[in-house]
Amino acid sequence: MAVQVETLEKLERRITLTLAAETINGEVANRLKRLSRTVKADGFRPGKVPMSVVAQRYGYSVHYEVVNDRVGQAFSSAAAEAKLRVAGAPRITQKEEAPEGTLAFEATFEVYPEVKIGDLSQAEVERVAAEVTDAAIDRTIEILRKQRRTFGLRPAAEGAQETDRVTIDFEGKIDGEPFAGGKADDFQFIIGEGQMLEQFDSAVRGMKVGESKTFALQFPADYHGADVAGKEADFMVTLKRIEAQNLPAVDDALAKSLGIKEGTVEGLRADVRKNLEREVKFRLLARNKAAVMEALAGAAELDLPNALVAGETERLIESARADLKQRGVKDAETTPIPAEIFKPQAERRVRLGLVVAELVRANDLRARPEQLQAHIEEMSQSYEKPAEVMRWYLSDRKRMSEVEAVVIENNVADFVLSHAKVTDKVLPFDELMTAS
Questions:
Q1: Percent helix, strand and coil across the chain, each rounded to 5?
Q2: Which H/E stretch holds residue 238?
């Protein structure tokens, strides 16, 4: 008999499932019989417990399991027969009235929506590009030099200067009262590198060993320490040690210390350029992909299944809890997190997922084996031993699934860009690298 599907609202559907009581009872009896072979009870040898005792002790739970199993099977068969794409788990409720000798249940559920993608030729996308400049290479080499710098004592007659490492004692007070984190002895920091607020750096510049100074410091309103944010503190600082930085020269020795095969400055610059170009490529890809997804979401019409949104919201909440736990937040697992905070993000993710899936299906944009291989090879080049990284990816199905998802997104981005109204824009290197 054909399955009768009732449409409730938009994507919501309902099916009535009928099970023969005789079939249920028979399966319950079979399971209890199998259970009786291993069940233990006081006064009986294993395997010799009377069926009446087994049924009394386990009958309800076994009956519950059988009904759940049979209802699940019946729902799957009915959904398949009706050619329904079910979104999320169904809500099953037992009907009070049912034909004699049967149990009746109602399964209420949602189906996947029809996704209508509009004319992509009318979608507008800004595609950005950027180049690795000599100045960017110079700055990167400067960072590499700083990572290998040493420090030596500055002559006693000289005051503290930019990039010097200083050792100080300090104590801060607000309205004459000490505050948490406002005092330290033998504290080290490098002037001008953002470790301290600029007002603090400015106060220490020019000080000499043994000198003390009192100064006022205004904490920013958005300071990470909520207790002092926006307040003014008075600090007493005593300078105990000044060390000037010594940067290694940009020469062949530096190149060799960095593991450059050629061992030359030219080889070092070429290696830095290659690494920066790889990073630029991935950042441009991510940014352009985000622009494509925004345009794609706006070009589609569909209803969102509430079940999928709820599931995605729950995943975002769990991710937030994991992040809180990693940060050391107490009771992160039980901290109340309102679902409403994540609902807009969850809706966007579900929407994009459905739209992308439809575009992939309709235009055969699935990941090809050669694309997967090329993507892994490119990623592995960022590591010291690329071959080992490739084996690491290829040996794990979950990691390969993640790679496949990225490649599919890339295919979708290329497809949309080939059809949309594209405006090209060149970004300065620094703007691309500092963008969040």
A1: 45, 25, 30
A2: strand 232-246
Each residue of 150-180: pLDDT tens digit?
999 999 899 999 999 999 999 999 999 999 9
pLDDT, tens digit, 9 for 90 and up, residues 234-253: 999 999 999 999 999 999 99
Q: Which fold has domain 5-111?
A: Alpha-Beta Plaits (3.30.70)
Which fold does the domain 150-246 belong to in CATH?
Chitinase A; domain 3 (3.10.50)
Which residues are CB-contacts of 18 (< 8 A; sequence separation ≥ 6)? 98, 99, 102, 103, 104, 105
CA distance 402 to 399: 5
Q: Is 219 within 8 Å of 232 (Cβ atoms)?
A: yes
Distance from first CA to last CA of the chain, Å, rounded? 58
**Rounded to whole angstroms, how far apart are CA atoms 184 and 386?**
45
Single out the residue of 387, 373, 364, 311 nearest to residue 342, CA to CA. Answer: 311
* Superfamily the domain 268-434 falls into: Trigger factor, C-terminal domain (1.10.3120.10)
Alpha-carbon distances, residue 376 vs 356, 360, 383, 390, 403 (angstroms): 22, 21, 12, 6, 8
Query: Do residues 27 and 103 touch, judged by C-beta distance below 8 A?
Result: no
Each residue's pLDDT tens digit, 265-304: 999 999 999 999 999 999 999 999 999 999 998 899 999 9
